[in-house]
Design brief:
With 239 residues, the protein is mainly α. It contains 9 helices and no strands. It is rod-shaped and about 125 Å long. It starts with a helix and ends with a helix. Belongs to the Frigida family.
Length: 239
Amino acid sequence: MFQSKEEEFNGRVREFESKEKDFEGRVREFQSKEKDFEEARKFEVKRLEVQMEDLKSKENQCEGQAKELELIDSHYEALIKLSEEEIESDDQSSLTIDGRSLQLLPSDRTEILDNLQGLSDPSKVVLDIIQNPIFRMGDNAVIIGDSHILLLEQLMRISPHIEPHVREEAMKLALHLKSNISENTENSVVVVGFLLLLSIYGLAPSFDEDEVYKLFGFAAQHKITVELFGTLGFADKAS
């Protein structure tokens, strides 16, 4: 009888040990699943963070592009308004527009500067505004006016980074202006525009230094030429 109870006790011990092992196995399984869940949760959080950063970057990019469009729109709206006024006051079928009289942008320098600083690529936008007017002169030449000089002056204030392809476009415009200057040095606005392009877009090394130096004599009445004289490296030579 004693042996029977001992066997019964041992059987219960083995049963308990079996259940204990089963419980431990379930605990390990739960811990493994918990670990997998935590890793999956961390991965999902990281994925969402990356996605949010990407969306934020795209949002900032869209905002920058929207500001670029607003600046260009202000240019064209002002030009269209001016052309309508010209049509009303002129019975001729064709328009002759003096680029130097155009006021394409706000006259407030702070407003222009703020607009430029909000653009993703202000150096390109400014070139687009100068190179793509709605109306051109009779010989299809690019117009450089006082409003463009004001725009270039403010662009110079922010010292923008110039992409290689933008510099190439600026070089084309500079060469075009240089040819116009060679034909007519009396237009000091074109001279100043040319000098500003050299300074802002880093084009000075591509032009003859002595020829550039002589151009300052044709634009001395413009205040910005004093600053350009220094930025283009002529201040040391004059001293």
